[in-house]
Amino acid sequence: MQTEDINENINVIFQPPGGHFVPPNSTKTILQDYPMVKAFLAGSFSGTFSTILFQPLDLVKTRLQNPTTLLSGNNGGSRMVAVFATILQQEHLRGLWRGMTPSITRCVPGVGLYFCSLDYLKTQYFADQTPRPLESVALGMIARCMSGVALIPITVVKTRFESGVYGYSGVASALREIYRTEGLRGMTCGLIPTLFRDAPFSGLYLMFYTQTKLLVPGEVFDSSLASPAHFTCGITAGILASVVTQPADVLKTKMQLYPNKFKGLWSVVVYVHGKYGAQGYFKGMVPRMLRRTLMAAMAWTVYERVSKSIGLK
User: Fold this and answer.
1) What pLDDT does 41 receive?
2) What pLDDT, on a 0 to 100 scale, did the predictor assign at position 1?
3) Binning pLDDT at 50, 70 and 90, where does residue 39 land?
4) DSSP calls for the chain
C-alpha cells in the first residue's frame, strides 16, 4: 500500500465537527510534520487487529485465574479446554468475546500511545543507532509505564468484564459505578502489579525482539519474507517475556477482581502462595502466553509494515 493511499484513507480521522474533510494536502502535512502521529496511528491500527483476534485467549486466562470460575483438570492445557467448552455451552460463541469493548477501549489507544512514546524516545536518544540490550529494556519499560498509568481504569473494567463476576452494562457505567462505590482506589487498583507485569514484559520483549532481528540477514527485511521474519522474531520474544512476567499477571487479576479482600500487593502474594503454592503464580499461563505472544508478534509485524508504508521508517 502506498503512502498516498493510506493518507487518503485516514482523512476521516482529521474530520472537523463541521463535517468537511480536511484536504489531502493538509493531512499529508500533518503526517510529515508530526511523525508521532504516524506512530500513534500505526500502533492503534495494529492494536485493533490483534486485540479483536486474540480476545478469547485473554478471557480464558482471566477465568482460569478466578477461583469462582476455575474448573478442575489434570493440567493447564485441559483446564483451558474445559473453560473454552464451558463458555461456548453457557454463553455461546459470542461469549468468547466478552469484554471486547473495554479491551478495545484500552488496547487501541494503549498500543498507539506505546508505539508513539517508543518512537519519540528512540528518535530523541537513538536516532542513528540500534539500542543495546539494556537500553532496549529501558525504552520498552518507560513507554509501557506511560500508557499503563494513563489507562489503568480501563484495565480494571476490562478484567472485571472478563471475569463473569460483575454485571456491568457498559464501560462508562462501570467506571461510574467503580468510582461511586470504591473511589479513586478502585479505579487504580492493581496498578503496581500491572506495571510490574507490563513494563518488564515490554522491556524484555523489545530487547529480545531487537536482538533476534539482528540475527536475521538485513536483506530479508527488504524482501517478501519481511513480515514472516518480523512475526518469527516476535513469537520468540513473546514466549521469553511471557514466562518471566506471569506471576505479576496473576497478582494483578486478584487485586482487580477483589479490591476489598486485599490490603496491598504483599497480602495477595501471601494469599496465592498459601492457597495454591508456587504453581499458583502461573495459573492461566498457557492462554496468556499464546495471546501475549501472538498479539505482540502480530502488532509488531503490522506496525513495521504500516510504518514502512507511511514513511515512518
Assistant:
1) 82
2) 47
3) confident
4) --HHHHHHHTGGGG--TTSPPPPHHHHHHHHHH-HHHHHHHHHHHHHHHHHHHHHHHHHHHHHHH-TTT----SSHHHHHHHHHHHHHHHHTGGGGGTTHHHHHHHHHHHHHHHHHHHHHHHHHH-TTSPPPHHHHHHHHHHHHHHHHHHTHHHHHHHHHHHHSS---S-HHHHHHHHHHHHHHHHHSTTHHHHHHHHHHHHHHHHHHHHHHHHTS-GGGGGSTTHHHHHHHHHHHHHHHHHHHHHHHHHHHHHHHH-TTT-SSHHHHHHHHHHHH-GGGGGTTHHHHHHHHHHHHHHHHHHHHHHHHHTT--
